[in-house]
Design brief:
Elements (H helix, E strand, L loop, with lengths): L4 E6 L4 E5 L4 H7 L17 E6 L2 E3 L8 H5 L2 E3 L3 E3 L3 E3 L13 E14 L2 E7 L13 E6 L2 E6 L9 E6 L5 H9 L5 E8 L11 E6 L4 H12 L9 E7 L16 E7 L9 E2 L2 H8 L7 E6 L1 H13 L7 E5 L5
Parallel strand pairs: 1-7, 14-15, 14-18, 15-16, 16-17, 18-19
Antiparallel strand pairs: 1-2, 3-5, 3-7, 4-6, 8-9, 8-13, 9-12, 10-11, 10-13
Helix pairs in contact: 5-6
This protein binds flavin-adenine dinucleotide and FE2/S2 (inorganic) cluster (FES).
FE2/S2 (inorganic) cluster binds next to loops.
Length: about 325
């Protein structure tokens, strides 16, 4: 069957060809251009851009778009293919150029159980793998026919890849991780993926995480700590939310970085004397000068959407809010 080929042009003047059965995002990635993305399933909204000219076909439902955004010609590049030649307002992220997505075998090195519902898994790759990533990115783990995404908690200078994994009730991959996985098991990984990485380390930085959403933030902070060229001149603040106190399985212990670390519990016990509630509400109440920060939010989609709305209503420019939502896989 003949496929309808169309030209996609970005506002910066970059061009690539796309067919009507492949999303604009995938066609861009296949042409070595990298646009903002995370879930690739229409749920997180990170790949949102404005369609300036031309028309598109919806390949999968653009769940994350509001009616107002649809009416203002916004599209999700992971969900749409071009119907005609199009002009879009997407930016090519050159920081990710040269970082190749690879499929590699990986063996489980260690499994550490923090709580009944949270484990840390380290994976070792073949010595020749040369797996490069930017701290903050994620990878897919493939086990038999199941594929799930996990953020990398280690840095690119470490030999092993560390993942923090939360158990989901009746979860297919959770069943593997929590009841079957053992050291030396052979898996496959595909990555790195996503565009959640630190853009400008000279800005004041505000990180928001729920649960295992702390994983890419640990990676980003460790990278800053390791970076001999990085001198901290601005505040770094982490708000980490969890339901129960025992879910805070990490503490920042840095020699160079000065991190203001706020733990927020939504279902505390009587001994808890930290913050209570939801991190986005607490950050909004407590954080002076919020609009000057670059905000990096990771974890539950509900937290991310609520934080984005609250913070932008409070004056934070939308382009200072970066996110990686741990949405469900299909
Ligand atoms: C970009 C990205 C990065 C991710 N990084 C991590 C990570 O670092 N650590 C981590 O623990 N998880 C992460 N996730 C989530 C992970 O990929 C799986 O979705 C999750 O582990 C559940 O998989 P499962 O097979 O156990 O459950 P499934 O079999 O997919 O689902 C089982 C049940 O849980 C519910 N469910 C599944 N996933 C979610 C969800 N995300 N939110 C709410 N309900 C859900 C389903 O509705 C269903 O009822 C990430 C997801 C994305 C998209
Ligand atoms: S909605 Fe397109 S990447 Fe999430």
């Amino acid at each position: 069957m003949n496929k309808n080929k169309c030209k996609v042009t970005t506002i910066e003047g970059k061009e690539f060809e796309s067919v009507d059965s492949v999303s604009i995002l995938d066609s861009a990635l296949n042409s070595d251009l990298i646009f903002e993305y995370s879930c690739k399933t229409g749920q997180c909204g990170v790949c949102k851009t404005t369609l300036l000219e031309g028309g598109v076909i919806e390949l999968q439902s653009q769940v994350a778009l509001t009616d107002h955004q649809r009416k203002s010609n916004q599209i999700l590049t992971c969900c749409c293919a071009p119907k005609t030649d199009v002009l879009i307002d997407a930016e090519d992220l050159s920081a990710l150029h040269g970082i190749e997505t690879k499929t590699l075998p990986a063996r489980i090195n260690t499994i550490k159980k923090y709580t009944a519902d949270i484990i840390e898994v380290t994976l070792r790759l073949p010595p020749t793998a040369n797996f490069k990533f930017l701290e903050g990115q994620y990878l897919d783990v493939l086990q038999n026919s199941i594929r799930r995404s996990y953020s990398i908690a280690s840095t690119s200078s470490q030999k092993e890849i560390t993942l923090l994994i939360k158990r989901f009730e009746n979860g297919k991959m959770s069943e593997y991780w929590f009841n079957q996985a053992k050291e030396n098991d052979l898996l496959r990984i595909e990555g790195p993926k996503g565009t959640f990485f630190l853009r400008d380390n000279s800005k004041p930085l505000l990180f928001l995480a729920t649960g295992t959403g702390i994983a890419p933030i640990i990676s980003i902070l460790k990278r800053l700590e390791e970076d001999p060229d990085y001198e901290q001149s601005q505040p770094i603040i982490v708000y980490w939310g969890a339901r129960y106190p025992q879910e805070f399985i990490w503490q920042p212990e840095f020699k160079k970085l000065n991190v203001d670390f706020v733990q927020v519990c939504s279902k505390p016990n009587d001994d808890w004397n930290g913050e209570i509630g939801y991190i986005q509400d607490i950050a909004l109440q407590k954080q002076p000068g919020l609009v000057k920060f670059a905000v990096y939010a990771c974890g539950s989609n509900a937290m991310i959407q609520s934080a984005k709305q609250l913070f932008t209503e409070a004056g934070l420019p939308e382009n200072q809010f970066y996110s990686d939502a741990f949405v469900q896989s299909f």
